[in-house]
Amino acid sequence: MNSKAIRFNLFFWLIYFAYEWLGRASIGDEYYRYLITALALVPLTFLASILTMHVLVKNYFLKGKKSEFWIYFAISVCVFALLRRSFVYFYVYPNYLPHALSEMPYIYWPKLLVEAVNIYLIVALYTLFHFVRELYNQRKISFELQRDKIETELKLLKSQVHPHFIFNTLNNIYSLAIHGNPMTKDLIYRLSAFLSYSLYDGSKDTIPLKQELDYIMHYIELEKIRYEEGLDISVNVFQEVEGFKISPMLLLPLVENAFKHGPNHLIKNNWIRLDFTVWDQWLTFKIENSMHGYNFKTLSKNGGLGLDNLQKRLDILYPSTHSLKLLKQEDSYLVILKLKSF
Question: N or C: at which end does the chain have fewer Cβ atoms within 10 angstroms?
């Protein structure tokens, strides 16, 4: 029995003891009589409760042995009713109600029924409290398991930065370094910052939106290596973003999707536009990219971290405070994400 169960039992039986002694004695000012009664009947009721809840219910009723449970339960009711009747008949009657000895026998069924009811009302109350407490504990355990599951799932979803992006970026930086390109140092710094964010800040619950923007800008600059002058990217922040909190790595899937399904090396005039608007604790993030001959259905699959994974994270983190719209136009693809600050 753990400490919480011990505290529960102490509290319950002390309250019942106080009722049997002080509560009943206060009516007729017979404190000694009801102290003796409480000292005899409370332990008896305690044994009946422990036997019923922790032996019969747990070992028989909850294990599907219903017939055995009811047989043993009926026997225990008879035994404890007779024990309580014995105390009343051989102690209470001679000392306080002597006339009752001549009016009724020891085995008097109405009195036995009353004694059984007096005991098992408390047994039922104890059992009810026990089940309520166990139900609370089970729900608490279930909640903790669900929370751990969600945290594990979030960590998994946030960790899915594709290795091919890192591999391609390192190859591109290596190629620039061979030719002595002055951009090499800056790109190495951006890759380092990108990896640092993914490894450390990505494990936090929330971060400032400004930090997420810096992360996205590092990603964009690293991706631009592959396109040279063939890609026009504009990033617009229309309001001050200080103070706005967001789950880390939440916007990257949309940016990665725009790069994967938008720019085409064989076609000119590729473009990507990102707009950030913060108003009344809500962020509106719009990202639109040019699109050349892609099927709309493919845009929801296999795109970077994946829009499916993004939707799962939104459902977990922003269950009723987000909206995600995907809009295909004739030659472009627009995503609008709205979510509330933590």
Answer: N
